[in-house]
Amino acid sequence: MSITLPESFKDKMKDLLLEEFDAFIDSYERPRKYGLRVNGLKLSAEAFEKLAAFEGGLVPVPWAENAFYYAEGERPGKHPYYHAGLYYIQEPSAMVPAELLDVRPGDRVLDLCAAPGGKSTQLAAKLQGRGVLVTNDNARERTKVLAKNIELAGIRNAVVLNEEPAVLAPVFAGWFDRILVDAPCSGEGMFRKDESMIGEWEKHSVERCSLMQRDILKHAAHMLAPGGTLVYSTCTFSPEENEVQIAGLLGACPELEVVPIPLAYGWAGGRSDWAREFGGDTERVESVAGTVRLWPHLTEGEGHYAAVLRKRGLKCEAGETEPGQKAEQGGKAEHGAIAAEHGGMAERRGKAERRDKAEHGGIAERGAIAAEHGDKAERGAMAAERRGMAEPGVNAEREARAPERRGNSERGGKSGRGAGDRGRAIGSEPERRGGGKRSRDEQLHKRAGGPGGGRGSGAGVVDAAESWRRFAADQLVGAELWPGEIIAYGSRVYLQPPGMPSFDGLRVVRAGWYVGEAGEHRFEPSQALAMGLRREEAALTLQLSADEEAVQRYLKGETLIIDTSRLEQSADAPDRTSLQEGSTLKGAELSNKRVVPKGYVLVCADQYPIGWGKIGGDGLVKNGLPAGWRRM
Ligand SMILES: C[S@@+](CC[C@H](N)C(=O)[O-])C[C@H]1O[C@@H](n2cnc3c(N)ncnc32)[C@H](O)[C@@H]1O
């Protein structure tokens, strides 16, 4: 065998698996499986199959939406489509937990242990831009990668936090419809994919991981709304971190029950006998048979464990649940996970849609998703399944870190603490200083009435929000209909999903969709804005073909000189006062008449945005790609 497994691991697995052990151990001789998941927020799986050329072909992953196996040797992390956020490279069995969570558009979803964001991007795709994804990780460095992956995916309705579950629990008590706990674990299912995990396994004991998992689960259960669903998952095989955790949780939280997972695709049931043997709550061990194990010798994946739990109780009708308040008011009982398993989904979806309408003024929004990786990215993907010990090493968004710090000396006025303190923004984000309830006005936000709406709450705020509105009116199409609240932290402007509780005292990495920075004289759109746009939402686009050299040059951060016939102005573009006279003409016309618009242009590869450029009258496009997003 090429992989040297720890003897103590082999001994334990032999005792557990008995006659299955040989098949299990032989699986380490077989090549690992490679997978990617198409970003349903940007395109369909069918469209992707037509667009992308994979020499070894793409084979659907049977248990996941829009997901494919690809052959070893392909380099999807190198392609411009990766930089356009069209897919996320993800180990196929790691796709299972988010599928089991049965997320519907409009849900409030928490991904509690989320970095680097593989499952978060999957969950966001299922939300389709409606509802909210709160994505959290307690490792500060890892949240930078998480934030970047959220932005690369073009997700508009996510908030990124960097907190301990114990801190989140009182803020979000009973608030979430869906919670994923993809727990830090000993990573036994990672050995074939990433041999360095063997060393990690030896360092971080099963016992230590078990303690962390128990604590995380307890707080997660507290944040789940009655009728809501929680999925617990690990990429390890040890019963102590799997069945025993679930039995323990059921004992501690009698309002939770296991929703049995149908066995298909070679999945095996959870092991009650192992739960009993390893000290699981004896009264609860039977129900863990309804959880699921993916074994590398029985499925086309590296291995995973997952449990679906539902919180008994009634769920509120739309709008009746306040943050931090248990939703026990009217409304019929709702059900939980796994779409295929349950009736009444239509009812649930109807409720979600009603709530969504209530929150969004009835305007549906699309969102977006994507990937990470490159070659480094491949390694980053591995980190995705690690249990939290991994150093991401992938560049987080660096743009605007300094400005954001400036921005953090905001009103709100209480004395600040040192960087990294609770209440400070992380990486490049807004910060809350001190405790205390923050009023909506203190938050410096304006209600989104679109670029033209809102009411001022203070000079600085009004300027930042106004600056955004002017930019949006001038350079974007339809932004006035986007849901969310415009929130400014200093000069940084966000669109925050509606109805969020106060983040006072929390470490906030992204308060919502970061749309850009308001300068004294102009608004500078963010890379996150570019990645979250559809091409038709930008007034002016530069249309490049993904396989042309200009795209590679752009991705390296170079300036481009373009044939202005490649420019396209949206037919629906609003009054573009910042553009030169005559700039409403289309590409070829623009070129013929030698009239070239100036200002921001959304650079697209095969129609998918990859970043901003700034065009001068001479056809020179200055590169707007932030350093951390460039291809090295
Ligand atoms: C298995 S990884 C998550 C992978 C991620 N779900 C994905 O699909 O990309 C576990 C994560 O849990 C985080 N973690 C560890 N302890 C935590 C805690 N107490 N609270 C929140 N996150 C924690 C680690 O930093 C790590 O990023």
UniProtKB/TrEMBL annotation:
Belongs to the class I-like SAM-binding methyltransferase superfamily. RsmB/NOP family. GO terms for molecular function: methyltransferase activity. Residues 24-312 form the SAM-dependent MTase RsmB/NOP-type domain. Residues 449-459 have a biased composition (Gly residues). The active site is at C235 (nucleophile). Residues 319-335, 344-363, 372-389, 396-445 have a biased composition (Basic and acidic residues). PANTHER family: 28S RRNA (CYTOSINE(4447)-C(5))-METHYLTRANSFERASE-RELATED, NOP2 YEAST -RELATED NOL1/NOP2/FMU SUN DOMAIN-CONTAINING. Pfam families: Methyltr_RsmB-F, Methyltr_RsmF_N, Methyltranf_PUA, RsmF_methylt_CI. InterPro entries: Methyltr_RsmF_N (IPR031341), MeTrfase_RsmB-F_NOP2_cat (IPR049560), MeTrfase_RsmB-F_NOP2_dom (IPR001678), Nol1_Nop2_Fmu_2 (IPR027391), RCMT (IPR023267), RsmB/NOL1/NOP2-like_CS (IPR018314), RsmF_methylt_CI (IPR031340), SAM-dependent_MTases_sf (IPR029063). This is RsmF rRNA methyltransferase first C-terminal domain-containing protein. GO terms for biological process: methylation. The lineage of its organism: Bacteria, Bacillati, Bacillota, Bacilli, Bacillales. Keywords: Cytoplasm, Methyltransferase, RNA-binding, S-adenosyl-L-methionine, Transferase. S-adenosyl-L-methionine binds at C113, A114, A115, P116, G117, G118, K119, D137, D182. Residues 319-460 are annotated as: Disordered.
